[in-house]
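Annotated sample (chain length 363).
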Amino acid sequence: MFDLVTELDPAKGVRQWPEPPLMVWSDESRASSGELLSSSSASASGVGGGLESVLRRVRRSSAAVATRGRPRLRWWGPITAAATVVVAGVVYGGVSGEPAVAATPAPLALQYESGADSASGALRDLADRLAIEARRDPTEDRSGRFEYVDVKLWALDLAAGGGRTAVQIVPQREQKWRSADGTGRLSVATLPAEPPGTRSSGFPAGPPLATQVTEFSAGQFLPVVAEPVPTSVPALRAALYARQPQINGPQSALRAVADLYRSQVVSMSARIAVLRVLADVNGVLYRGHVTDRLGRAGTAISVDSTNGTTGKNRDLLIFDDTTGQLLAHESLILIAPHQVHVKAPAVFSYILYLDQGYADAMK
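Output written by the structure step:
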């Protein structure tokens, strides 16, 4: 299970994330948060016991998401905001042995769910179109001291009390400002829970439930890929695989790209190089034009991966057809490993890439 967390962690290796404040979930949330995913129970010494060491190790490597205000099993802890990993639909043994409930979104609707072809041609076509546009208008606005990146993501909160275990999906908005010398700011806003079973992910009216802001001094807030982001395919490929090792399979390329876009501004030339890197990866499938959770349509690609620890998973990326920007990264559990009780397919995590650019000041 730890491999499942770490392999799908788009922030693996990051050590500089803040700890968001504690949140309080209502006791009624269990009844309304989502469907009962399995009638199988798991004792704390079974699935829960296995998760104990997993979550302890994850908590040590990054900051914790909010836990409930009522009595909780601290050693189950939450999966972290930094990892943005959501174990959607996993059944955890509660104090009473009764299975937990998780509010999970519906997987995105794919144009080509089955019979998908290689994505190589589609990615090259998109890269070629963007290259033509870039030659027509080679200028890019890079004014401003700070790089700015804005994403929305999910994280999981586990807590136990009153004879049962509660599972809540916690949506968050993460905004980064970083200067060339590693000075910067990270703002993580915890948002109200979203309705389960939907494919939408809008922003609710009103302020966030809580916001944690962390300031970084020079040299502390470093990007995933050393800047400037390489624009040659060989150099970018090497930088991405330094983040997610190629030996792990074609899914590493998709996860490294997701890491890159979450960390820093990606120029048009670098976006074109990203598409060409992905076009050279065997096993990447074209899923057609897919609409993300904010209603934005783009070119979707995916990789399915399998091993004995994590079961069968799918990474899906959606790219804007006009700008080449990454719009979304969704991870699914297609077939769960035997030790994880889950109703598959289940959304494991998702990230929505909202904005990137340059700013004169941090907000």
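Annotation: The longest helix spans residues 120-136.
Annotation: Residues 120-138+222-353 form one domain.
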